[in-house]
Structure formats: structure tokens, C-alpha cells
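Exercise: predict the fold of this chain.
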Amino acid sequence: MATDRIRNIGIAAHIDAGKTTVSERFLFFTGVERRMGEVHEGTAVMDWMEEERTRGITITSAVTTVPWRDHVVNLIDTPGHVDFTVEVERSMRVLDGAILVVAGPTGVQAQSETVWRQMKRHDVPCLAFVNRMDLPGADAAQAVESMRQRLGANAVTLQVPMGEGRDFDGVIDLVKMCGIRFNLEAPGTPTLTVPQAQWTEQQQVEAEVLRAELVEAVANVDDALGDLVLNDQDPTPEQLSAALRRATLARRIVPTLVGAALRNVGIQPLLDAVIDYLPSPADRGGVQGESPAGSLPGAEGGDAGVTLLPDPDGPLSALAFKMTADLNEDLCFCRIYSGTIQSGDKLWNPRTRRMERVARILQMHAEHREAVENAGPGSIVALTGVKLTRTGDTLCHRGTPHTLEGLTFPEAVIRQTVEPESGADRERLLEALRRLEFEDPTFHVLEDPETGQWVISGMGELHLEILQHRLEREFSLAIRVGSPRVAYREAIAGHGSGEAVVDRAEGATSGKPAFGGVSLEVAMKPSGGAPIVEWAPNSGVPEEFRPAVEESLLGSAKAGPRFGFPMEGVRIRVVSGQSRPGRDTEQGFAQAAALALAQALGAVQIDLLEPVMDFEIRSPEQFAGGVLADMNSQGANIREVESEGEERLLRGQVPLLSMFGYSTTLRSLSQGRASLSMELGGFQVVPERELKARGLVWE
């Protein structure tokens, strides 16, 4: 398939906006599935995990391929719950375009803002689809305005709803100026065109006004259409559509369509818009990578930037963006940017510096798989047989080594202990935990050295709860879990320095001979994040031992010196070293680095940091006062209270510790009618006076 006939898209939104329902309609209307899967019935094809079907939510991103208008659409259905935002992040990294689904009655919600930021970060053009237009209170104009106000998106209306509420059964296409009605009784039948002569007078007036606004909005960001408008020419549908495509690819505009996926209204025009306005791999052009000098054209004088074009005969370039620990065989999901992968190929992983053999290439349809012999640029496939590759790794040929930009993931904010009911299952539990950690980069497993228990950490209570259920269902383990705990961090206040030399002679009682000397400084990193290691020019540490020094320093920083929590926002700068050629050893430098770091951290103040969450609560007006008062009692910083019809939106920041189990409290305060969304907003210092109350220090 030519790359200009491929679309790689994702569907993303706030939870319960209807993403998976849209995906299921895509499968039906493209003929991939003969019956419609329903989320509320637990029959959705894209929600294939048992936990997804039981809970009625998407947990893991699912990949499928559908045909439409002689094109191939590779589709990823992503989760909407903030605990699984990593699935959206890694999907956006490999997609060319996206559909942002917004619920008509509510407009933009908290997670809509999160996925919009992810789209911007990865420069992904998108369409918007205002869903659930058949529900009371649905307002397409208000939803578009919320995208402009809350997202800063230049959203433009392409369609006008025909009918309201349960009478909503069609749309007016403002590009072609024609009406489209959908047969609600027989959704598999073709749509019905409604010419302007059959429109009501109100529909005619509204459509003409909105089309004029559409043309003006596009003309403001597209020079070719702007010239037509300045010459008082009314653009043809073809001219307007071409301008919309150019503006969308440049992320200057967000074309917005309307529909009701559950009632099968608006799906075919949305598929048309995917083909008409979202980019192909050819439109996106080459992907940027780094390559050692001389290994690829343009790579000269050390590591250099290279561009990998979507050419099936070019150097192979693929990014592993998702790993799945399947019971039968592990799957490595890849996006191929350049070159072609053949079944049986041996691929080079620059991170591990090892070869990987591809056993099979699989075309995925949710959990179902079909083996193919090869895959070229623009393909999203799953590989089997690779053993050492992890999320974010580049796969290429050894003769043309290079690395693509990897992936960054949010930090875990919640911890729990987990242990088997039977001591005989301890090894089985560890193996299962490692399997889950392999596929989920936001899930981490550590052993508590004092108790011997396994400590698991993740993105939220729901995240860990689902992983616990997977341990029980998929791995047949009986387990005990502790209460949720905050995943604290430690940070330094000020600067410190340390120096250490390890010098062991032959035959010393302390072990094998070793030598190494390291002098370093530690300082705060204003941007926060994981510790980093920097090297001063001419540091004196031999080049071949630097990886061991970095590994030792970063490993030591995983447990802070005061409480044992991971370090946050620490910059470690190696300023000098001592070397004895002929006596230097990797172990000597690694040990010296760890000792020097301990000395430096011992000379500075150590603060305890706790995660704080950005929250949004949507509540009916009559309960908003009680919710506001209760959030204030939880120590929340209320930043904004906004009215949206009969609802109130409360936004602010609150310590995570106050919010364990708060969803139950919120249901009680609002008779089950309020909703809560949270995501990590950063870390703040815990006052010293509170440490004793939290059981972290003793007198």
C-alpha cells in the first residue's frame, strides 16, 4: 500500500465521551465487523480485556486496521481515565493524526485537556468530534467554544446538527452545503442526501452564517483561500476542502464534526474527514533520528541528526512503542518509519547493542492477530521473537545504526505492598509482577529490604486495583495487598560536594584489587524530574568507566539518604577523578562514585516531597457548596469555580494523601451526580512539623 493511502490515527478523549463506541462504529461501517460491539453490554471488540468488559472502560490501547475509500486506516483506541494516560502518550508518539472526542452535553473536560497537550507535544494534527448530540443539554456550539477557551484550539465547525435530542438524525455539511440523514432503524444502509430545497428556513439561515464563518476562519490561516476571499470569490467545495486539509496538517485549525455514535449518526462523514483532512505518512515526511558518524547519509563528525524518509527501500527505522506480556508470546508493537521488515529478519537494537530476530510479523485487530510476511513505512504491527527490546527502543539494521526520540512517562504517585497468600507462590508472584512491569512503564516493583514484601507503585488507585485483579485472574495468584500509600520523593535544599577514592591492593582482605577516584557536586534541578548525571570537561574519569559511574550514581539515587524514597530533581556533576592506568577497574570507580554521592548528600538538607494533584470536579449546582467546603477541609487550593449551565466546575490542586478514596465521599456529597478527575500536578515539600504525624520520624 502506497504511503499516501495510509492513515495512522488515534481516538482520544475524557472518560465516557464515547471513544470506544466511535471505534466500534468504524469497525462496523467499514465492514470489518458484521455486528456492532457495545461497551455497556461488554461486547466491544476494542475493549478485549476481561477487566475492560467488566468495568465498561478502556484500560489499554488497542490497535486495528480498517479500509475506507481505497485507503487503509490504522486505528488506536486509547483509554480516557487519567490512570492510564501512558497509553495515550505512547500512542501519540507514533500516530500521524488523531480524533478528539468531546461529549456534546459537557464539552471539554479535564482529560480532554491532557490528551490535547499530548497531541501538541508530539505535533499531531487532529479532528474533533462532538459526540452524544442526541442527549438532553447537548450543544455543539458550546462544545466548540469550550475547545477554543479551554484548549486554545482554533476549532471550526464543519457540520450543523439536524434535529435535537432524540430527533437528532442528520447533519448539514458546510463544505458541500448538503444535508445528510442517517437511517436509525437500519444503520447499515447508505445515508440519504437532503438538498437545500428541503431544509427549513432556520436551517438555511444558520448554515449560511456558519459557512461564512468557516470560510473566514480558514482564510485567516491559509494564504491560497485568503486570496480568493480578498477577490470576493466564493470558494468551491473542492477549494475549501483543500484549504482545510492544508490548515489541519499545519495544526492551524481543528475541523469539528458532530454526531451520536451510539445511534450511528455521523460516523461515515467522520471516516471521510479522516481521509480528507488527516495526514498520511507521506504528508508527515521523514522522522528525525541520531546516527554515529558515517553510518547514514548526513551523519558526519560525531553523532548527527538524520532524516529517515518513508521509503520502503530506505534504511530500516522502527520504534517500539508498546510491549505486551502475552501468556503465549510477548508482543512488541512497532511503528515503521522507513524501510521494510521481513519475517525472520535480524534487527539491531542500539540501546542494548544486541541483535533481535523477528519470528513473526502480526497485523493486529484488538486481541486477534494475522501473520504477514513483511511490513513497510507507515505500518503499525506487532513483532514476536524479540527478547531484549523495551518500550521506546529503536530497531534498525546493524549497517545503518541510529536512534529515534524515545518516550518519557509520568512518575508513579501511589504505592502498595503485595505478598502471596502462600509462601510457596513467592517466586510465581515475582515473575508475574515482572511481566506486568515489562509491559507497563508506569508500574514499578521493588522489594522492601526490611520486610521482604514487594512494593508496587503506579498512577492511581484504579491502576493498582486493576493490576491486582490481573494477578488473580491471569496468573491465578491469591494475594494480600496493603493500604494505598503516597509515593514520596526526597529532594536536596542547597549544594553539596563529595570525594572518594577506592584503592584495594592485590591480596587485600577486602576483596579483589580495584582502584578508582571520583569527586562530584550535587545541586537542585529547578525543572524537577529524575536525577541526571553531568560531566565536567576533562573530568579525569576514563571514558570506558563512565557508564559504570553513571549507573552507580543513578542506582544510588533510587533510595534517598533520609527516608529511603527516590531522589527528585537532583543534578549530579562529576567534576574530577583519579586514575591509575593498569590498576583502574570498573568496580573501583563505581564504588567511589557511590561513596562520593553519599558524602555529598550527607552535607545538605534533605526535604520530603509529596505529590499534589491537579483536580477538576463537575457537580450539580445544588451540591457545589458542600463539595467546595469539603475540598477546602482536605487542604485543597481552589483556583477556579466556573458555571456551566446548571453545573459548577471546581478546579485546583490538592495533596494526594487527602484524596485516597475520595470518589466515595464525593458520591455521598452529591447523591452520585458529581465527577472527579485528577492528574499529577507536581511535588511540594512536606513541612517538618507534619513528618511525625505521618509516622515518618520519631523522637
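Check your answer against the key: The first strand starts at residue 6 and ends at 13.
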